[in-house]
Amino acid sequence: MECQDYGLNRNIERDNLNLNPLQRGGVLTKEARKALYEFSDGYSVCDYCAGRLDEISRPAIHHFLDDLAEFIGVDQARTVHGAREGKFAVMHAICKPGDTIVVDGNAHYTTHLAAERNQLNMVEVPSNDYPEYRITPESYQEVLDYQEDYGEDVSLVLLTHVDGNYGNLTDARAIGKIAHDHGVPLLLNCAYSMGRLPVDARAFNADFVVGSGHKSMAASGPIGVLGLKDEWADTVLKLSKRHAVKEIEMLGCTSRGAPVATLMASLPYVIERVGRWDEEVQKTRDFVEKMERIGGIKQIGVKPKEHDLVRFETPVFDEIAEKHPRRGFFLYEELKKRKIVGIKRGQTKWFKCSAYGFTQEQTDYITRSFAEIVERYK
Ligand SMILES: *Cc1c(COP(=O)(O)O)cnc(C)c1O
Fold this sequence. Notes:
Elements: H1 12-15, E1 17-18, H2 21-24, H3 30-38, H4 61-72, E2 76-80, H5 83-94, E3 100-104, H6 109-117, E4 121-125, H7 137-149, E5 156-160, H8 172-181, E6 186-189, E7 208-212, H9 213-216, E8 224-228, H10 233-236, H11 258-274, H12 277-293, E9 298-300, E10 310-313, H13 315-323, H14 330-337, E11 340-341, E12 350-353, H15 360-377
Parallel strand pairs: 1-11, 3-4, 3-5, 5-6, 6-7
Antiparallel strand pairs: 2-8, 7-8, 9-10, 10-12
Bound molecules: pyridoxal-5'-phosphate.
């Protein structure tokens, strides 16, 4: 048989400014592109393996995991295939089917799926209302007190450090403390934070952290990070009875080639860029201010921004769409003409975007472009 053309060419990221928050933190470094090529064959990190992926010395996965653990403030670090696999592994190791876990109302769908796959009940901590959707320590306190008063055990507290809908940064330290006061461990989902802003699991009172290499750590993926305290190592990194060196929750070995190689290659750069996080936040606040000055554009979520993911409500674009011959597609098409992508075709009521990693000049070009489009059609 002959295969069809799968269209495996892509120049979106090279030729355009991509505003999709999902993709801003996963752009590879030059070093990672080289590693991607060097380790492109299957099982390419296994040349010198003696049975344990995390102990391989060439490439130096063992040293890399030590550095990673130090970087995120945990005792043990492992790579997994994504943040979701990390969450699943923790839930699977420490909960039994039918157990109850507490999760925030802004949790990612993968949190819900990981819990469902583990047959866990979820109790949600609601956010406050429009337009902030803030998750507060007080609401965690209330939910955990209620669970305690009614004698319903909670096996795990999960908190989304920065959520993917509003880009709200939560107070992990305070919520971790509340979880511990109730005798429950905290799993902090850092998919949108680890690799962008400083993550220190110890300071955050987190027993477990997960991160996403392809989301926020300049890695090709699929690759995630799981970090934990030593006291949980016996449970989460439990060894097989039959294959004495293999860790059960990792199914022996996780990332076995290019994905982990790209994460390793980018780590020095990621450590450096996290040190410049304040500049990114400042740039985001400027960006929001300039966008809102256009009129008919409003930032939703906590203000001022503490993360680069921004959600805007954009009634001005929705009004234009009503009269424009291209209807809802005009915004995508006008942006594309200006080599700006990452906002979904047809979407005009609201959108999420991020200028993470762009220069001030590029960011200004983006806000000018939005202003131009409004001026032209309003
Ligand atoms: C993107 C995202 C995930 C999923 O990350 P993967 O590494 O792809 O599993 C999980 N949680 C949040 C909050 C996210 O934004």
